[in-house]
Every structure is written in C-alpha cells, then in structure tokens.
Design brief:
There is one protein chain. By secondary structure, the protein is an alpha/beta fold. It folds into three domains: 213 residues, 3-Layer(aba) Sandwich (Rossmann fold); 78 residues, no CATH class; 167 residues, GMP Synthetase, Chain A, domain 3 (2-Layer Sandwich), CATH 3.30.300.30. The strands form seven sheets. The protein has a five-stranded parallel β-sheet, with helices on both faces. Strands 12-13-14-15-16 form a five-stranded mixed β-sheet.
Length: 652
C-alpha cells in the first residue's frame, strides 16, 4: 500500500491515495477479460499508478507536460490519466475512433510528447502521423497483441514502463509522494477537446478544483456513494465520461466496470447491473430500437401483452415513479402485474434492474423516448451542460421531472438569460481557459465571468430551464414563425426506423428534411416483409421504406400541429439519403452532433431539389473508409411529399 502523509485532499491524485488508505481492499476497477471479470482494489490501483508515474518520470515526463490517452475504456488508460496528474502533468484523452489525420491536429495543438494507447490500431495511427507531428517521442501501449515485432525506439509496452518505474522508485523512494504533494488544486487536470461542430476543436482546460467541486455537488444531489456501480463505455475524450466515471470514482470511491469490448456492452451491462447510468440520447434511442425489434419478432401473444401493459405504464407509471397524482387502485394492480410480466423482465434484459438514477445529456431527448423509460420505472433524468462547464449546469431532481425542461440550476451555479435569449452560466465548474486560445476564451467568457453557451432558452414559471435549440440554429421561417431544427429532428429520431435527421427551413416558406434510416431496424422490418435489398443504399431507395418513413414524418407533423410556437415547421417534403451521416466524412462530430454548415454545403444540390418541384435528384458523394481509402457512392434519390395538418386537425 502507498503510505502518505498528505493532509490536503483536493486533487485527483490525493483523492486516489486517500481511498488506497481508507478502503484499500474495496474494488476500484473491474475489467472483463476473456469472459472473466478481473477486480483491482484501491490499494492495487495506487501501486499501479505509482509504478507507471515513476516510469514516465524516468523517461522524461515532467510537470506541466501533456499526456495523450487513446483507446476504449480500459483500467490502464484511466490509470495513465492518474499517473500524468500525479506528476503535475495533464491528461489529454482523444477519441479512439478518430482517423490519424484528425488526431494529428489535437496531438500537435496539445504539444504531446508522450502518448499511452490501447492497442496496435492506435500505435499504427500515431506512427503514421509521427513525421508530421515530430513532438511525439514516446508511444506506450496496453494490449501487446500484434506488437511483438515493433522495434521502433519510441514504442514501449505498458508493462515495461511500469517495471522501469519500480526501479526508479527504489532509487528515488520519496519522489512519488513529493510530486503528488507539489500539485495544486488550481492545476490543470485535463484538457478535453470540443467536438468541433463549426470549426477546429478547442482544448478546454479544467482544473482539479473545478471537476472535484462539480462532482461533489452531483454526488450530494443524488446521494451517490462508494456502494454504487457504473459501467464505463462512453469515449474517454468526452467530458461526461471524465466527470461521471473518472471524477466520481475518485470523489466517492465507487467502482468502475470496463466492458470486454464495445460489442459486448449490452451483455456486460446485464452482468454488472449498475446502480447509476449515464448516456446521451442516442444510446437510449439505440436500446429502445433493439427492444422494438425484439417485440416485432415476438409471438402475437407477447406483442399484445407488451402493448397492453405499455398502455398501463403510460397511464400510471410516471405518477407512481414521482409519487405524484392519484392513481386508481385498478391501475396500481395492473401496473404491478405489468412489473411482474413486462417491465421487470424488460429492465433485466437491458441490465437496468438495479438502476437508482439514470442521466441523459449532450442534446435534447425526445419526449416520447423519455416517457418510455420513466413509465417502466427507470428514474431517467435530464441534465444540461457542456464541456466548458464540467457538464452539470442544471439537473432534474427526482420527483420533480418535466419532460420539456432540464431542471433547475445546481448548487453554486448561476444561470441567466441574456438579452438575445442566450443561456449564460457562471459556476465553480467553469473552465480555466481554452488551450493556447486567449482570443476564444475572451469571446466565450464575458467581463462578469459568465460563459456564453450558444444555446437559446428560457425559465418556466417553476424555475426550470427549457432549452429551445442552439442559438445560432434557431431561425425564422419566411413568414416570421420560429424555426428550431433540433427540436424537429429529435421528434423524428424517436422512431426506431430513423437514425439521423437534418431539417431545413430558416428563411424559407416550408420545412423540409433529410432522413437517414436505421439500417438494423429497417433491415429487420424489410426482412419480415420479404423485401430484398443489397445494402444501405438499395434499402433506403425502396418504395416501401419511403412509405414507412412518410408515416413517421406525418405523425411528427400531427404532433407539431398542436405546438403553438412550431406549428408552421411541419415537414412538407423529405428524402432518404443514400448513405449514413458519418464522422469520418465530417458530417457529424465524434459525439454525433450534426455539422449543419458542412452538410448544407456538401448536399446543396439535394436541398435545392427539395425546394423545387422535382421528384428525384441524382447525387454522387465521396466517402472515406476506416483505413483511409476514399471511394464514392451515388444514387438517384426520390423526393416525397407528405401530409401536413392545420392546428385543428389530428392524424387519422
């Protein structure tokens, strides 16, 4: 065990050492390897981190340097971030699915000398760009598979660096604790790069103080403690994973569970049975899509039972979860039967049986999607925040949840609405600055210390914040009515058959849209109807698929017809894109946010066709493959008109 004489516990390394002393045998990490869960205790983690930190120091890593971390959720990669912080360095996690060219910008911008990566794939990426980013002097890998014959002097195994560290610690016995003691709570703990929706990513510098203060407020808000379990599956480079996984594990001492691979997340989720869960709306959408596919494949009796009891859940589930409203004795009994026959087994299959609280954030979640999870007894709550604010700005309190808001400001957080309707935030969790971008920092934080979020919103009568859309995306139709594309897109994406949507209408007479189908959901639907197809492009062009999507769009229109602010934003025409929107093609960010400006430019010919009288449009699009090769895909896309509704009409 690492013995410490530290009195202050105000940085992540000092929190780590405190847990190693106060709960040395409690599990800190679990990792599933070859089908078996391997546990690492807090005292073992402290030893692992110390040997790695000393090894890095022996190689020349010093205070103030930045360490890149690239890969899936692996204990050693979390320990790498800790080791950098112990030495007074800064962790810089990168998106593991980013191609080498995208990584090059961050590696160069962050002035990376050392990188710790997961496997051969990431090593190859860094070696590929090493000539263009000459500052990379050491690449350390976790998984040794395929790397036995790599003889480059810059490439080292994680194990060899730890062995070097043990030797260094023997000859410098006081070094590690001295470095930890020298750290300041105001030091930069992590640099998290923004998704780059409108330009090059910016490095957000967060101090230990900001992250720890935000995490403690969150832990107190929902009573999170060391007995909680979390499955880590979100990208290390996303602020949500850093705070809700790495941050909270250090703050309250809970155990982080790392899945065997991204492909096994759902089965690993069932085995762990986490007590709290965090994910962006797309994760909940994907889970629900899988549920609906299985229901469609079930027998007639099971389908009928599911739909009947989901009707009971919609009628009574929300009131029972929040402890509000009167629920009749009949509905209470029916809901209890539903819990036994439907809701309980469903939650068990999803790995959500033990969840006390689940969060969603990053973008708005569709009300129907939100309603589904809460109605079956999952305490799903929305939060609001961004990378620059350590995520948490507002959150819904248990029992005080509104489907169309993100809750009230958290303790210590000040939120106000600017004259233009923009949401402004000042809090202890605010970033220190953008890395090497004083101009961008000055533009983002005003003279009074308020961060300009770029989101448009307002407070309702109960003090809950309601986000309309990105301020720059909110526009007006030609007749002056409000146009909020994200709001419309979220309604479309509730349907399991629609994976992505991009709405157009700012300055125009009508709202039209691009649709990307969900290949798995629509493919399953097509196969059950004996519709043959050869791939995504062929499936997307099928007339039956167009009718399926048209039905979904018309249901959204019927819903919008009853929205006084957005009734004029009903979709008049749509087309189904011949390819999925892809981060590798720069159409989405790595967090799957739509890059509207880029899409409007790339697909200008399709937008023009939507707003003409044409019934089809040919397009050829260049695409990038994972290995860096380029190709093209072309198609003659059909354009479909759909029914719209007056304010007094409802869908038949």
């Amino acid at each position: 065990m690492v013995e410490t004489g530290l009195k202050r516990v105000d940085t992540f390394p000092r929190l780590l050492l405190q847990h190693a002393q106060t709960r040395p045998e409690r599990p800190a990490f679990r990792e599933k390897d070859l089908g078996i869960w391997q546990t690492t205790t807090w005292s073992q983690v402290a030893e692992e981190v110390r040997s790695l930190a000393c090894g890095l120091a022996a190689l020349g890593f010093k205070r103030g340097m930045n360490l890149a971390v690239v890969g899936d959720n692996r204990p050693r990669l979390y320990w790498a971030m800790s080791a950098a912080q112990c030495l007074g360095g800064v962790a810089v996690p990168l998106y593991q699915d980013a191609p080498a060219a995208d990584m090059a910008f961050v590696l160069e911008n962050a002035e990376i000398d050392f990188a710790i990566v997961e496997d051969q794939e990431q090593v190859d990426k860094l070696l590929e760009i090493k000539e263009s980013v000459p500052g990379i002097s050491h690449i350390i890998y976790d998984n040794e598979r395929g790397l036995r014959n790599y003889n480059q002097p810059a490439v080292h195994s994680f194990v060899s660096i730890q062995e070097l560290g043990r030797e260094y610690a023997r000859s410098h016995p006081d070094f590690f604790l001295q470095e930890v003691a020298a750290g300041s709570t105001d030091d930069v703990a992590v640099i998290l790069y923004t998704s780059g929706t409108t330009g090059k990513p910016k490095g957000v510098c967060h101090s230990h103080a900001a992250m720890i203060a935000t995490g403690r407020v969150l832990a107190a808000f929902d009573k999170l403690d060391a007995d909680n379990e979390l499955l880590c599956y979100l990208p290390l480079a996303w602020v949500g994973d850093f705070l809700y996984s790495f941050g909270l594990s250090h703050i309250v001492g809970l155990c982080l569970n790392c899945p065997e691979s991204p492909a096994t997340v759902m089965s690993d989720l069932r085995e762990i049975g986490p007590t709290y869960y965090f994910g962006p709306p797309r994760i909940y959408e994907n889970i629900l899509t899988q549920v609906m596919i299985r229901i469609e494949d079930a027998s007639w009796i099971k389908r009928s039972m599911f739909h009947y009891f989901m009707g009971v859940a919609r009628r009574a589930g929300l009131a029972l979860l929040d402890g509000k409203g009167s629920v009749s004795l009949k509905d209470r009994l029916l809901y209890g039967i539903g819990e036994l026959l439907v809701y309980g087994p469903l939650k068990n299959v999803l790995g959500m049986s033990r969840i006390k609280v689940a969060y969603t954030g990053g973008e708005a979640i569709g009300p129907d999607l939100f309603d589904f999870y809460r109605s079956i007894g999952i305490n799903l709550k929305q939060l609001y925040g961004m990378t620059e604010t350590c995520v948490t700005v507002c959150m819904q309190a248990s029992g005080d949840v509104k489907l169309d808001t993100v809750g009230r400001p958290m303790a210590g957080v000040e939120v106000k609405i600017g004259d233009s309707g923009e949401v402004l935030v000042r809090s202890p969790g605010l970033m220190l600055h953008y890395y090497k971008r004083p101009d961008a920092t000055a533009e983002a934080i005003d003279a009074n210390g308020y961060f300009q979020t770029g989101d448009a919103g307002f407070f309702d009568a109960d003090g809950h914040l309601k986000i309309i859309d990105r301020a720059k995306d909110v526009g007006k139709m030609a007749r002056g009515d409000m146009f909020a594309p994200k709001y419309i897109e979220n309604k479309l994406k509730f349907f399991p058959f629609i994976k992505e949507a991009v709405a157009f209408g700012d300055g125009r007479d009508a709202c039209n849209a691009f649709i990307c189908i969900d290949m798995e959901a629509v493919g399953n639907w097509a196969e059950r109807r004996n519709i043959a197809y050869s791939g995504y492009t062929d499936l997307a062009a099928q007339s039956d698929v167009y009718q399926l999507i048209a039905d979904c769009v018309e249901k959204v229109n019927a819903d919008l017809a009853h929205d006084t602010m957005l009734a004029s934003s009903q979709i008049h025409r749509f087309l189904i894109l011949h390819k999925e929107l892809d981060p590798d093609d720069d159409e989405l960010t790595r967090t799957r946010k739509v890059r509207r400006g880029f899409i409007a430019e790339k697909y200008a010919v399709l937008i023009d066709a939507l707003y003409s009288s044409r019934s089809s449009q040919f397009i050829e699009t260049q695409v990038k493959f994972e290995d860096g090769r380029k190709g093209s895909v072309s198609a003659d896309l059909a354009i479909r008109d759909v029914q719209t509704f007056s304010a007094a009409q409802k869908a038949a």
